[in-house]
Amino acid sequence: MESALKLLHDDLARVEVQFKEDLNSEVLLIRKVGEYVLASGGKRIRPMLLLLSARLSGYQGGHHVGLASVVEFIHTATLLHDDVVDSAVLRRGSASANSVWGNEASVLVGDYLFAKSFSLMVRGGSLEILKALSDATTMMAEGEVLQLVSTCDLDLDEECYIQVVRNKTAVLIAAACQVGGVLGEVGEEKEAALHEFGMELGIAFQFMDDALDYIADQSEFGKATGHDLEEGKVTLPLIHALRHCSDEEREKLGEIVEKEELVDEDLAYVISLIDRYDGIEYTRSRARELVERAKTHLAIFPDGPEKTALFELADYSVSRRK
Fold first, then answer.
1. d(Cα 309, Cα 233) in Å, to the nearest integer?
2. Strands 94-95 and 90-91, how do they pair?
3. Nearest residue to 94 via CA among 149, 39, 54
4. Is-contact 57 178, C-beta < 8 A?
5. Own/partner pairs for 36-39, CB < 8 Å, 24+ apart?
6. How far is the CA of 297 from the CAs of 274, 308, 312, in angstroms?
7. How far out from the chain centre does Cα 284 lie?
8. From the centroid of its chain, how far is CA 196?
9. Half-sphere exposure of residue 228: CA atoms within 13 angstroms, side-chain side
10. pTM for this structure?
């Protein structure tokens, strides 16, 4: 990831300035909540991917900075809404916005960020970029609903779960990469390659989040261990364990997932079961496979520092601890 940070140092600084400009509102609460979430330690993966993809595509203009801000706005809006849906109290190691300002403020500021994102996109004047990002946003909303209806569903299989992940997480990462290609006017084939690179990477990124939810240190990961399980989310480590566990173990898992409150004893049982059936290693292995497959999509582009940085960013996604 160091190559990407070094290569994008100036652009990322401009993106941070752009955030503040785009949050300019006469309503003080919007600025407070928006700046709080945007300043809370996000990895800026999506803006970095857009900026690198634009560079890889030979783009020399200045619209990439504003669009990098837009994709982070969209992502931030989903975080605000997610934390309300999940009743989260932590986000990136700090108090979540909804626990500081309340659910109403979080939902409404999230709505503002979505609306502002589309306003900024329209000003850019590219219908192709507007379509890519608006389609992604629509699919993200579908993914959120799909995850909601899959809550506590122990029959959720890997294929169906990947569809949730594709819609909820990966589509925005894919769109960010594709937009870089649109800016560089690389043509449909290379745009599609960037989109597929982002899609595979986005799924891998979520898989690592799934694993870290069970094993990461709370102070490093920034949210409580087992939070997904407490919310009834059946993610890949648990799906893998369910494929191999006994009927008795499955029955006990069902009882735990259905509980209103996750106690330490139940969490320890689920973690031990996932460990017994190598759910974490399986999840990491699947993520590594996806990253290696993602890299093959960029074979159509010439080698260079931008491509190297994209590969390092992809590798980081499966080696990170938070």
1. 33
2. antiparallel
3. 39
4. no
5. 36/97, 36/100, 37/76, 37/79, 37/80, 37/91, 37/97, 38/72, 38/76
6. 32, 13, 15
7. 16
8. 16
9. 22
10. 0.92
- Assigned token pair, 65: 């900075």
**Upper half-sphere CA count for residue 233 (Cβ side, 13 Å):** 26
pLDDT-based confidence at residue 223 (cuts at 50, 70, 90): low
**Can you list the domains of the chain with their CATH numbers?**
2-317 (1.10.600.10)
Q: Which of 67, 77, 58 is nearest to 15 (CA)?
A: 67
* Residue where the block lists tokens 């990831």: 1
- Residue 121 · residue 255 · CB < 8 Å: no
Question: CB burial class (10 A; 0-12, 13-18, 19+) of residue 91?
Answer: buried
Question: Tokens 């582009």 label which residue?
Answer: 301
What angle, 0 to 180 degrees and rounded to 10, lies between the N-to-C axes of helices 188-215 and 158-165? 110
Q: What is the pLDDT of residue 218?
A: 56
Q: Which of 151, 313, 133, 121 is nearest to 230 (CA)?
A: 151
- Which pLDDT band holds residue 258 (cuts at 50, 70, 90)? confident
> What secondary structure does DSSP assign to 77-131, as a single string?
HHHHHHHHHTT-SEETTEE-HHHHH-HHHHHHHHHHHHHHHHHHHHHHT-HHHHH
Q: How many residues does the chain have?
A: 322
